[in-house]
């Protein structure tokens, strides 16, 4: 059976009331689906994307050659098997790939939101998705799965919509964003804000798609350092020097420097800087315990079976943070959960790269093992 990749956008004219007390008067949500939904709509899996991800989680568009960010995991016969499941991945509100965000047009005006876009939270992202699924007449799903910011969403689904998913599978995430991660986001935001070409948020988006944004590239380089690890950098690059550069040239580069430059500057041509600021803000203020007395009180709301997967050398969201969720669940006797720490030297991005190390754990969780 083919992947049956389809892309849709839904428009909502009723306001979305946000955690901050503000609202989005109207909004759009773009999403992708894979596989085929059964008559009872009982075979649905929700996949949630990370910070710079999108709804394009699997397959290849006709006019492109780059597969979706979890293509190795989603498809016929894969861990998230589209022969069995109907998979949905939405682009979160605040992003820049079709769902409403800071660079979208404000209702009833000829202007873009820019700084008039309200601060959104991970909970807001999840609430908007839940409204979408209601429209699609999907009220109960097999699982919600995500890594990094996607894992934050998966856990929020479990807490705030406890009867929605049978299973929650969260990878490489945390219960509350810690100072280390916030610090990396601060470097990125300062680099963006201080770049004259950012024009205090009033830049031309089309111009940035052509030229990029230097400040954002620098911030992204810092981000990439947090996504990897000392070991993965040593294995990937070693101390190899760029062959066309002289060792004693001041601006000669090691291979790792070229890698950071390439990824940093290329990134700024396809991801919007205001969206980056808004989504990193949502990540910074993410805290599962907000609105509850303790983390335990929040996690007690979850009725789904939980699978937690961490990676041993994750610098951004340390394995100890996932272990803390596990210990908290154990502390009040919630036994319908599993915690697996994957031995890995890759770093945070292992959840995107080292699929062979955890795909069987996802398959087992979906099979009820």
| Proper CATH architecture of the largest domain | 3-Layer(aba) Sandwich
DSSP strand tally: 12
Q: What's the overall geometry?
A: globular
User: How far apart lie the N and C ends?
Assistant: 25 Å
| Biggest sheet layout | 8 strands, mixed
**Estimated radius of gyration:** 20 Å
Fill in the CATH topology of the largest domain. Rossmann fold
Q: Which homologous superfamily in CATH is the superfamily of the largest domain?
A: Alpha/Beta hydrolase fold, catalytic domain
* SSE succession: EEEEEEEEHEHEHHHHHHHEHEHH
Proportion of beta-strand residues: 15-25%
Describe this structure in words.
There is one protein chain. The protein is α/β, with parallel strands linked by helices and 369 residues long. It folds into two domains: 6-177 and 287-366, Rossmann fold (3-Layer(aba) Sandwich); 181-281, Rna Polymerase Sigma Factor, Chain: A, CATH 1.10.1740. It is built from twelve helices and twelve strands. The protein has helices at residues 122-135, 149-160, 179-193, 205-211, 214-227, 230-237, 255-267, 273-284, 295-299, 319-331, 350-353, 359-366; strands spanning 6-12, 16-17, 23-24, 27-34, 44-48, 74-75, 80-81, 86-90, 141-147, 165-171, 305-311, 337-342. Strands 1-4-8-5-9-10-11-12 form an eight-stranded mixed beta sheet, with helices on both faces. It has a two-stranded antiparallel ribbon with strand order 2-3. Strands 6-7 form a two-stranded parallel sheet. Strand 11, helix 10 and strand 12 form a beta-alpha-beta unit. It is globular, with a radius of gyration of 20 Å.
